Amino acid sequence: MKALLTKAFADLKRRRLQTAVVLLIVLLASGTATLALTLIQQTSDPYDRAFEAQRGAHLQVYFDASRVSREQVAATGDLIGASATGGPFPLSGIHLERGTQKLEANTQVQGRDQPGGQVAQLRLVAGRWASGPGEMVLTRSFADLYKVSLGDVVADVAVASKPALRVVGEAVDMGAGSADLSTNTFWVTEAQFPALSTGHPDWWVGYRFPGHPDDATLSRALDRLKAAFPSGAVDGSVNYLLFRTLFGITNSILTNTLLAFSVFALGASVAIVVNMVSGIVLAAYREVGVLKALGCTPVQVVAIFTFQMLMPALVGAIVGAALGTLIAQPLLQQSSHALGLPPDTTLSVLPDLVAVVVGLLLVAVAAALPALRAGRLSPSRALAMGTAPAHTGGSRVRRLLGTRTPRSLALGFGEAFARPVRAGLTVLAVLVGVATVVFALGARQSLDKVQAANTQQGSAQVLVQREQGYPDASVTATLAAEPDTARVVAVALNAVTIVGYSQPVSTQGFRGDATKLGYLVISGRWFQKPGEALAPKALLDDAHLHIGDTVAATAGGRSTPLTIVGESYSVSNFGHSLFVDLPTLQSLAPGQNPIYYYVVLRPGADMSAYIRRVSATAPDFLTVKSTNEQPIGPVQIIDSVTAVLAVVLVVIAAAGLFNTVLLSTRERLRDTAILKALGMTPGQVVAMVIATALALGVIGGILGVPAGVAIFRALITALNVSTGNDVPQQTLEVFTPLQLLAVPVLGLVVAALAAFLPGRWSARTPVVQVLRSE
Amino acid sequence: MSALVELREATRVYNGGSARAALDGVTLEIGLGELTAIMGPSGSGKSTLLNLVAGLDRPSSGRVVVDGADLTNMSEAALARFRRQRIGFVFQFFNLLPSLTVRENVLVPAQLAGMPAGKAEARSRELLDRLGIAETAGRFPSRLSGGQQQRVAMARALINSPALVLADEPTGALDSATGVQVMELLTELHREGQAILLVTHDAKLATRHAERVVSLFDGKVFDDSRLSRSGAAAGDLVRVVGQEVQR
Amino acid sequence: MLGLLAEEPLHGYEVKSRFERMLGGTWEVNIGQVYATLQRLERDGLIEASGARGDRNKLAYRATEAGRREFEDWLAYPDQEPQQLREGIYLKLLLASRTGDGSLDALLTGQRRVCLQRLRDLAALEEQAQRDGRDDLVLLFKGASFHVEADLRWVDACLDELARRQTDRRTGGDAP
After folding, report:
1. How far is C-alpha A712 from the geometric centre of its chain's CA atoms?
2. What CA–CA distance (Å, rounded) separates B187 from B6?
3. Of C84, C109, C122, which has the smallest distance from its Cβ to B241's Cβ?
4. What's the domain count of chain A?
5. Does B222 contact C27 at a Cβ distance shorter than 8 Å?
6. Do the chains contact at C152 and B203, CB–CB below 8 Å?
7. N or C terminus of chain B: which is more exposed, having fewer CB within 10 Å?
8. Do A741 and A768 fall within a single domain?
9. How confident is residue C36, by pLDDT bands cut at 50, 70 and 90?
10. Do A35 and A328 touch, CB atoms closer than 8 A?
């Protein structure tokens, strides 16, 4: 045993390059696997975990404070069978300004003395809770959106005295969506609240129920509350299922992306490790012969080789797993940040363990199998063979290439296929790398398109929001007067009920040509006259409607028929919305004028100056901002995760190519020496080695592009379906031919670079010593 | 320059000169069309000499000129080009490329030199015919006997019509009968005017075929003799001595 | 001679010519020696006169039964005589090393040259014998070549040894 160990260690020291390569590749593979597994594990059900951790409120109810007292509200928990109650906390609408900048219209202030409690705990992620007058805490989501930092001072302009508040803390609120999509809450102490209230405060109460209540349970609870108090006492409610589903979508985007990448990464890593390890053992047949001649049994031979591979693999796996976990942390932070969740600091060791154990098993098997094969040869055969017999399949390739190709290239290409299994595994690794890059490229562009479709930021540069009280005509006139205005599309909003769907549907009425605003029409067409409407797939399915159908729409007692002329792409309310023209909306809700104005500027216009000018015409009533200010969090996280994993996979693929070429050149030492003697210049030798890498790279690239496109399409389709939409063709057809060509070309460049060093080493083979021996 | 190979004070040291020089100030000239044998025990410097003449190595000092080309300071690439155009190799262990067929093996130097495909094919066919191995053209070297492999090697050596053929122990891996055949082929080539440098430790081989034997010892030229066809009679050479038979 | 006479009865001069031809010129005997030996063999009872009279009225001899047996014994008997070394070169070597001057180098070089030329000539003779169909002579010349080779190797060994002694003297001898 000791002799075996001694020998194994001595071999490791001798073959330093090989040991280093094994270590590095296992490190990369293990790191990638750990990263992937960690991300998957921790992003599955993040919302539920955070929700439970923060004891989130299943049901939030707003009671009109003028109709019910605090005590009455506080007792409602038992009434509806809630297991815990949070609050009641006073709540009021608020308008905040920082200097001259208006901060959103959907804001409310809540008096709350401490972030903890039985229900709906708030998690502080920066600073501290408000402790006295003039201090306030806001949500992290809001702080990100408007770039508000600790120490900033804002004023509440809804109250005459415009009290100033200093931001002392940032918290994550599980009871709200992200800042751009929902109402934003700010917290001050209860004592401070009256000074900020606009005079129509509500009581906010949060209820928790045993287990996971469904929609029916929560509706019943809400009904009971309404019945217990005079009409109008319940001012509004929110149930947690809405947010859960919202998170579910963004989470599924993330999870699916990560899953796809992780599968890639693991596949590539496995291929490379197996390839490399078996290749090393295959090259050592002669050594096996020596060992056997010295009296080692086949088992001992297997043990020696397996040990040789496992030693560096163990170090690489452990270091890699640690690195993977480390790298996962900032990505996890970003992920929970993007999801609006509090940061998850639990470090799970399970992914690391799995990665290390599985990795080592792989290495052991990959080493043991060829070692076993070698171990069973008779010593004389092993000695004579030197290395495992090579396939002469290369000759077919050379014949195909004909005599016109330069000899060095032809020899290199042929060599690439001399060992089919090794070639196959290497092609697989390259394929994965190329597919990942294609996928990353496509995902990024597709998500950009989705973002544009939902925020119009690609088409219209400026968004003007009008407060009630300022006439629509004035806004239109102001905008028309601006020379930089190229086009304005105004949007009015109202809730409309259609036959076949019980919930009111958010409806946008457009004035102006909305077709160029980036909205995606999946099938059919945009509306052209009053009475025509578009709806996304989810609504169409739920209401059993098709393009061409007519349905009755009602709002506020009025009714009008709507003809569905097209299927739109919209993620709001998971695909439940309607697009109509303004006259149609106004026929259902007269006096409902546009409150959003999308402005397309003339090319070369100065956007900030424009914003300032328009805002100055009615600063109290108009909020003018650039459409770029509305990031969608998940897109960023997907970009960063994609980028990291793509880079890692490309490195792994390159390392795999490098290793294959290295092994190949070592096996061909003698042949290279002969060729050099016969007059192959060093340049030709390098070309020959690079040709080997290129041959494998070309095939991997050619196969990788459609693979990447296929997986990309599958993911985007799944994504869109989960948001209640059909897949718009535009989000699938994001690749220009140039891009699809550039990726494999880049791959070839990487392959050539990977092969360059082994090529140079090969060109320096000493000739005569090699040729004079058997 | 009438000499084909010219070495002037050629020296080659390894390991920074602390060890003994592998080749020590050798001055030697070999003329066109000669069959010269380089003899010597192992360590005498004959492989080093072969390397220098073949352009596989550069001298540490002195000059090496082969077929008009000064190899002393040539770059690797230039040496490679020189080798493929002017030198043909015949090695002891054949050194054919196992993954190429016989035909492809013979063609390698021509293809490296950029000879047009048609011309190269024709020439290789001619050589294979001449050496009596035309029927092996499509086979792989592992399926050939030692003698056939060496003949393939010779065809490969000749395809670019080299100025000099370097034969390094060409019969070392062959049985005596096959060895004789191979040497006969070499001698035939010599008769047709091919210059051959034969490196060997086997004195019988050297003296049998070469008209000039250069003996190396300790990196220096120890002896340089032209051997004549003296036509000596058996009696001048051999005397069988009788013995008393004790009864 | 006994062997030849065991084959068939021969006259004295026939024995000489046949013997010489067999040895391909490597051993010339004079006729007197032949007759003296014939007499001795007859005296020892190994050959006898065969009766026929040929040219010059000389007797033909043939081997007796005893002679045949003796011949066969001799054939079967391996050679156990001490190795014969040609005296010239060995004596020169032994004596020259006593005087210790450089002339030994020149001597060995010269001897080497002789060996090489001899090898070449023997090769030519071997080829000729091959062409003449004399396989037995081919073996003889081969044997001679091997001996010459052995001499050559011995000369090389001497050279090696001398070189070693020189370097020893140089490194071991004079102090810097």
Report:
1. 13
2. 23
3. C84
4. 4
5. no
6. yes
7. C
8. yes
9. confident
10. yes
- What's at A726, amino acid-wise? D
DSSP single-letter state for residue B173: T
Q: Quick one: pLDDT band at residue A404, thresholds 50, 70, 90?
A: low
The structure's pTM equals 0.69
With a cut of 80, say whether residue A376 has pLDDT above it: no
Contact A680, B112 (CB under 8 A): yes
Q: How many helices and strands (H and E) does chain B possess? A: 8, 10
Interface of A with B (CB under 8 A): 390, 392, 394-395, 398, 403-404, 406-408, 414-415, 418, 670-671, 674-684, 763, 767-768, 771-774
Name the one residue in this structure whose structure tokens are 């008393």.
Answer: B244
Q: Which residue of A has its CA nearest to B52?
A: A768
Which of B97, B174, B200 has the most A C-beta neighbours within 10 Å, making it the best mutation to test the interface with A? B97
- Write down which chains contact chain C via at least 3 CB pairs under 8 A: B
Q: Report all structural domains of chain B as residue ranges with CATH numbers, in order of start.
A: 3-246 (3.40.50.300)
Q: What is the pLDDT of residue B1?
A: 46
Of A389, A416, A431, the one marking the end of a domain is: A389
Pick the last residue of a domain from A205, A224, A243: A205
**Chain B residues 30-59 with a CB less than 8 Å from chain C:** 41
Q: Tally B–C CB contacts below 8 A.
A: 76
Q: What is the DSSP string of A137-166?
A: EEEHHHHHHHT--TT-EEEETTSTT--EEE
Let me know if residue A74 belongs to a domain. Answer: no
Q: Among A672, A678, A692, A767, pick the best mutation site for testing chain B contact (most B Cβ within 10 A).
A: A678
Q: Minimal Cα–Cα distance from A416 to chain B, Å?
A: 12
Tell if the CB–CB gap between A679 and B89 is shorter than 8 Å: no
Which residues in chain B have their CB less than 8 angstroms from residue A773's CB? Answer: 93
Number of helices (H), then strands (E), belonging to chain C: the values are 7, 3
Residue A447 and residue A493 share a domain: no
Do residue A427 and residue A471 come from a single domain? no
Nearest CA in chain B to A390: B99
With respect to residue A245, please indicate whether it lies within any of the assigned structural domains. Answer: no
Q: pLDDT > 70: what percent of chain C?
A: 81
Q: Which domain holds residue A149?
A: 85-205
Identify whether residues A635 and A622 lie together within a single domain. no
- Is the distance from CB of A149 to CB of A178 less than 8 angstroms? no
**A336 and A274 belong to one structural domain:** yes
Orientation angle between helical segments A682-722 and A669-677, nearest 10 degrees: 140
Which chain B residues contact residue C66 at CB under 8 A?
Answer: none
Q: How many whole angstroms from its chain centre is CA A127?
A: 29
B6 close to A (CB below 8 A):
no
The list of chain B residues with pLDDT below 70 reads: 1-2, 16-19, 230, 241-247
Segment (H or E) for A521 = strand A521-524
Whether residue A370 is contained in a domain is answered as yes
Q: Looking at chain A, how many residues does it have? A: 774
Do the domain assignments include residue A80?
Answer: no
DSSP conformation letters of A326-346: HHHHHHHHHHHHHTTPPP---
A504 with A622, same domain?
A: yes
User: Is the same domain home to A470 and A597?
Assistant: yes
Query: CA–CA separation, A140 vs A159, rounded Å?
Result: 24
Query: Looking at beta carbons, which residues of chain B come within 8 Å of C27?
Result: 239-240, 242
- Residues in B closer than 8 angstroms to A415, CB to CB, are 99
Same domain, A480 and A598: yes
- What was the pLDDT predicted at C175? 45
